[in-house]
Amino acid sequence: MTEARKVPLLNVANILTMARMALVPVFLLSLFAAGGFDTTWRLIAFGIFAVASFTDHIDGTLARKHGLITDFGKIADPIADKALTGSALVGLSMLDVLPWWITIVIAVREVGVTLLRFWVIRYGVIPASRGGKAKTLLQVIAIGLFLLPQNDVIALIAWVIMAAALVLTVVTGIDYVIRAFKLKARAGRAVA
Q1: End-to-end CA distance of the chain, in Å?
Q2: How far apart, in Å, are the Cα atoms of 116 and each of 83, 90, 174?
Q3: pTM reported for the whole predicted model
Q4: Burial category of 61 from C-beta neighbours within 10 Å (exposed 0-12, middle 13-18, buried 19 and up)
C-alpha cells in the first residue's frame, strides 16, 4: 500500500484546498459588486483574496509536515491556485485596472507549464523552483495591491511588483521548458 493511499482524502490540507476553490466565486462576486470600484467591496474582495492565498501556504505546509500528501491534493492544489490568481487577473483586466496583455502573458505561462508537466510526467516530476515560488509570491502581492482602493503610492508599488512578477513569469517559464526537455532527454538516454 502506498503512502498516498494511507492518507485519508478528507484531511485538513485537502479541506483548505477545497475551501480556496470555493472562495473563488465569492471573491469574484465581491470584486464586481457595486460596479467593481466601491471601496468597501474592494476591501472585502482584497480580504477574501488574502485569506484564500494564505490557505495555499497553510495547506502545503500542513500536508508536508503531517504527511497528508494525496494524489487529489497534488492535482487540486495547483488548480485552486490558478483558479484564484487567474480569476483575479481576469477580473482586474475586465475592470480596466490591469492591461489584458499582462493577464494573457501570465495565463499563457501557467497553462504552458501545466501542459509541460503533464507531457513529461511519465519521465518524472518537475518540482517548483525557487524562482517559480518567488513569481507566485510577487503575483499574489501585486494582485492584492491592485485589488485595494488605489492611490498614487499603492499604484506605484503595485506596478513595480507586477513588473518584477512578469519578469519572473517569463524567465521561470523558459526555465521550465528547458527542464522539461532535459528530463525527457535523460529518460530517453536511460531507456536506450
Answers
A1: 31
A2: 18, 23, 11
A3: 0.89
A4: exposed
Q: Are 129 and 105 in contact (CB under 8 A)?
A: no
User: Residue 95 is which amino acid?
Assistant: L
Angle between helices 39-65 and 71-94 (to 10 degrees): 160
Q: What is the full DSSP assignment across 85-142?
A: HHHHHHHHHHTTSS-HHHHHHHHHHHHHHHHHHHHHTTT---PPPHHHHHHHHHHHHH
Number of CB atoms found within 10 A of residue 25's CB:
11
Lookup: cell for 147? 485589488
Cα 163 from Cα 169, distance rounded (Å): 10
Beta-carbon count within 10 A of 9 CB: 11
What element of type H or E holds 172?
helix 152-191
- DSSP conformation class of 33: G
Distance CA 174, CA 113 (A): 9
**Angle (nearest 5°) at CA 127 between 7 and 17:** 45
The tens digit of pLDDT for each residue in 40-61 reads 999 999 999 999 999 988 988 8
